[in-house]
Fold each of these.
Amino acid sequence: MLVLSRKKGEKLLIGDEVEIIVIEVDGERVKLGIKAPKGVKILRTELIEEIKGENKAAFDLSLKAFEEIEKNIRENRDLK
């Protein structure tokens, strides 16, 4: 990992097309501006983790529903 110190207004370049600009520093918060081509995805990792958690919860719920349906089918077969 590369660690850099930057002041307000300073920039850094990633490759030839992505530019990061320090917009504001306020205590422990830093505002960054990012210039990148439209095809470059810029994602906040906390949102990715939240989406992964929601997807896992939805899968677990679907699996539980499927298991309940399977159980009901078996019980109905046994009644015949």
Amino acid sequence: MTDNAHLLKQHSFVELGARQRARALLDAGSFRELIDPFARMTSPWLPKQGVVPQADDGVVIAKGSIGGKPVVVCAIEGNFQGGSMGEVGGAKMAGALELAAEDNRKGIPTAAVLLLETGGVRLQEANLGLAAIAEIHAAIVDLRRYQPVIGVVAGSVGCFGGMSIAAGLCSYLVVTQEARLGLNGPQVIEQEAGIEEYDSRDRPFIWSITGGEQRYASGLVDAFVADDVAAVQQHVEHLLHKGKPEQERSSQYALFLQRLGQVDTTTQIDPAAVRSLYQGEQP
């Protein structure tokens, strides 16, 4: 098969909505959505601020199986409020993860897949959103003791803010070329440090620092895949069958703090320096 023929057979994962992504990952016929849009679990705070809510609050929760293994999928809709996490959507995700942990304690080995397209906390819901994200963090740490929690950052929103911490707590992370992963978004960095430090309009530079390929080369994620539904599904299935990692990445904080301590903050960092830093090479 020629390269062009292969491309014609690809189906973009990035172009799918949250519900479509969840359905695409699960085994055929196993998709079952919990608290779907007909439940009308909307944010009570957005209408008060003149924002039209979404019936599922931008978070899709589905149970099913991947490669025959029971999983719960939590998918964030990046097209609604930039994938921001509010009280309702955060509670749906945290509750799903908590119930998965309870399943494991009852002898039902349920893993989790998080489809992360989010800018972090929803500013309109402030502390309520932050509390929800904290509950998600705690639920991930609880569940990963039993089964792997796999995060997928595909694009085009990326994963930032408090939800990037959720990504860092996952047992494994899968990214595409279009993905971005970082604690602070480009516009926030530019606002605080100036355009000379970080130009949010310089897309090649941004992706070279926080893009999927760079994060994979830096050892901060576990799989770098093509923007293809089958490729993403196969890698997620592989990681589920692999089971829990021998050591969680988040438990290696001393190593990462030591490397970050080597950063020369007097000059603007470049892609090569980022890669060398995380690979443990001397700057």
Amino acid sequence: MISLHELYANGKSIREIARITGLSRNTVRKYLRANGIPEPHYGKKRGSKLDPFKPLIDQFMAQGIFNCEVLLRLLRDQGYTGGITLIKDYVKPHRPPRKIPAVQRYETKPGYQTQVDWKICEYVDLNGEVRKIPVFAMVLGYSRMMYIEFAKRCDIHSFLRCLIHALEYFGGVPKTMLTDQMKTVILGMGDDRKPRWHPLFEDFAATVGMVPKVCRVRRPQTKGKVERTVQFIEQNFMPGRRFTDVEDLNRQARQWCDEQNQRIHGTTGGETD
């Protein structure tokens, strides 16, 4: 096949070359001026808002932080203005696989049950040392609304104080409260396998009209809602958290609970207890 330059060298006009080749006259002119077929020109690839923060994300992932909501909060503190989708797309190939056994869901009616637990969380203080702090967690069985409060110790007085604050936060008292065999409220099990409740807790429960119950041993689904809540605290609230003291931490925890409790739960559709 004869080239454009050969046609032009043989005296063909640009109009004639355009008619012969089926190209436009402007295209013929462009190819003749380029002395051949021009190389395709690609514009400079547009950078992402996330690009400057990727090394920081790599550092967080090296620390075991893969929760994208946590990463979004940490990056916003550093000036990131993009969305969470960019973070998810970057983190996804690096996320370790999760192996979660299937557990049958245990449901209750509105206002019937709440679940409580203690959890020991770790944090890094201002001197870079790893510290531990207990957190009280309470979740309503139907709506999944939750309340968390950090304390200096896991004793009965701290437990009752947190429990009162939780009931005030929810604005009511459920019929039953489910717990595991935590030493804070259970002194032991009798010969009839019934719990011997701490007298202060037993008096409080009777006063407010709430029936305490103990979940069955090796039956995680019965107390799975609060178990998932304490995992959520570890994975979503605590990573990268900075605070000055317990009061400051609890102010942040209260705000976090308010935000989480505004979400529409997939099972309940946002209905409350």
Amino acid sequence: MSDFFQGLAPVRYEGPDSANPLAFRYYEKDRLVLGKRMEDHLRFAVAYWHSFAWEGGDPFGGRTFARPWFDGGMEAARLKADVCFEMLDLLDAPFFCFHDRDAAPEGHSLAESNRNLREIADIFAEKMEKTGRKLLWGTANLFSNRRYMAGAATNPDPEVFAYAAAQVRAVFDVTHRLGGANYVLWGGREGYETLLNTDLERELDQLGRFLAMVVDYKHRVGFQGTILIEPKPQEPTKHQYDHDVATVYGFLRRYGLEKEVKVNIEVGHAVLAGHSFEHEIALASALGILGSVDANRNDYQSGWDTDQFPNNHPEMTLALYHILKAGGLGSGGFNFDSKLRRQSLDPEDLIAAHVGGMDVCARALLSAAAIVEDGGLDRALAERYAGWDRPDATEMLGMDLGAIADWVERDGIEPEPRSGRQERLENLVNRFV
């Protein structure tokens, strides 16, 4: 046990009228929502990197946080694991997730790095057995070390490609051993800064082959979880190959992997791509690749990925509405890929931030469920597309262009526009948020 959260009590549900900043007002894990426990809908996960590895720096200034595990090798890594599980207990959060280099320090060789990771995985396994906490997903950090400055799978140096493959195998094995529900491929530098030194076709083929190898390995070792890609349009590269959900789907189709891989969608990345969060959720659902969620938000006055804790209840409501309509996230969940502001120094700030984020998601779930139960959006959608249920309309989809044109001319079809009623539907949603 550590004393990092000394004096803080486990967070409890106190209801909407509570003014306690360290109490849940909406998150009540055993509450049934549409016949399913709230905890099972949301599947919250604490993220290792932003919660315990981020030092509070920005492009113009370094570390602001004073964490006792920031320096000290494996001893510090063991302390970090203790603090992580203490926070999981305080929040009663069911899952955690990690990058390998945030859980254990990089060694002088890959073999040493892997030994470090396996040692921390032993600690994870013991703590998971004692507490019942689970692993939502693991992933390899293929972006921080200078060897990956030109990408990992897309690197022009074949030795870097090979090193990345070896690193992924090690993290995949640990994720599999710990019963991870998913494995994420986060392409932090899989893109380009300039086309002057980039062979796009070659790099895409390398990335497709790399992903196919991971899928093959999944089946070889019997991993039952889901492989996820996290779309991101830019930052730090000028253009990343996993720009958004649509781009990822096109990539998966090209390499025959659309049935094997799904997406982990982040709010902030959706915004950077010029989309709304609910757009990316709805499109992933429509394409059959909705997997999991990084729950955060961007500052809309900043043009970069600020990774703040979610606090926009209406925005999250629309996303959860589409998740509910899709049947849920399956093996995925809501991982808090969110970080404190660099001036939020206290351990209590870390707990309060997660309490607020969990409450926003829980409140949004209740609102989204109420919209589903009301049925007004469903009825409006059905009415708008009702014409396509007519036999002649269904038959038209099997006709060629000429036959359709002849039909229109023969019957003198003159369509009359109908209102989309957007404002009425916006008002309907606002009844529940």
